[in-house]
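User: tokens in, sequence out, please.
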């Protein structure tokens, strides 16, 4: 019987990786929805979507007429109290007035000044400002609309730091640790893989969906954009001295090894799988040639003529 022509490749030493797969979405690591503290009509909006803002910058101004009038009245009352306290103090020092009257005037002054400070502080609630430096990624505020504490007027995010929020099946959560390496890819960036690190693993999962939320920090320099859906592979184990064979050599739980010029079947115990290779825990030794895409006519002891894969 003529030798059967086969293509072989050597089992090699390489890195085997255990990983947990999850899908996720890229979002901002720091983001805030901003609403007014008080209810009042919007008088003016000072920013547009996409605009960079600094911390404390004015975003919108609300109608503060009644509050401004009340604050002015409180300040006027404080001014009168200052004058009254000064007059009572002078009279008491000159012996023309009782000390008790001067003390009462000082108490009234302290109360009036506290009320004036409160009125001035309340005016700040009518100015909506940025809580931190960032970019306005959404603006829902328009002049004339009514601002309320339950209505989001702006969404601001820090564009410098992005992350991935992924949902991991509860069956895979045991091996996850903060700091673990994660490989992130997106359909919108074919052929590119971004390295991230697990930042947090939520301590409690969703009992209905049976998933845990995992946050993955991304490098500052990345082509990923907020809102992109991504595939994530989180590394849970690395073995740098693993025995690897091509995926094409695995045939129903076994591999065919060329010994001399004959084919010998080996039962495999396999581990991690990659895109084109399989980790062999037992069954094949490094350096042995395995047959790729074993032909159906292959039998134990069959003579073969092997050529190496390109």
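Assistant: Sequence out:
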């Amino acid at each position: 019987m003529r030798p059967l022509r086969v293509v072989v490749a050597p089992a090699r030493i390489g890195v085997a990786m255990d990983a947990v797969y999850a899908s996720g979405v890229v979002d901002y690591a720091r983001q805030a929805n901003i609403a007014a503290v008080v209810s009042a009509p919007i008088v003016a909006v000072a920013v547009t979507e996409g605009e960079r803002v600094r911390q404390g910058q004015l975003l919108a101004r609300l109608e503060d007429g009644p509050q401004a009038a009340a604050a002015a009245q409180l300040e006027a009352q404080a001014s009168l109290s200052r004058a009254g306290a000064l007059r009572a103090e002078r009279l008491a020092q000159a012996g023309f007035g009782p000390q008790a009257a001067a003390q009462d005037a000082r108490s009234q002054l302290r109360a009036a000044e506290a009320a004036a400070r409160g009125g001035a502080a309340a005016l700040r609630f009518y100015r909506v400002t940025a809580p931190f430096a960032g970019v306005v990624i959404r603006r829902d505020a328009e002049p004339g609309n009514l601002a309320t504490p339950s209505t989001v007027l702006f969404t601001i995010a820090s564009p410098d730091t992005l992350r991935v929020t992924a949902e991991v099946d509860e069956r895979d959560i045991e091996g996850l640790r903060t700091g673990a390496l994660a490989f992130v890819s997106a359909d919108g960036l074919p052929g590119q893989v971004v390295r991230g690190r697990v930042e947090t693993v939520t301590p409690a999962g969703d009992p209905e969906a049976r998933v845990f939320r995992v946050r993955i920090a991304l490098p500052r320099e990345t082509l990923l954009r907020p809102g992109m859906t991504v595939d994530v592979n989180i590394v849970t184990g690395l073995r740098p001295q693993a025995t690897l064979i091509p995926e094409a050599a695995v045939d129903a739980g076994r591999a065919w090894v060329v010994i001399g010029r004959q084919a010998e079947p080996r039962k495999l115990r396999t581990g991690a799988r990659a895109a084109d290779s399989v980790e062999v825990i037992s069954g094949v030794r490094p350096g042995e040639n395995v047959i790729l895409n074993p032909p159906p006519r292959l039998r134990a002891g069959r003579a073969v003529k092997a050529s190496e894969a390109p």
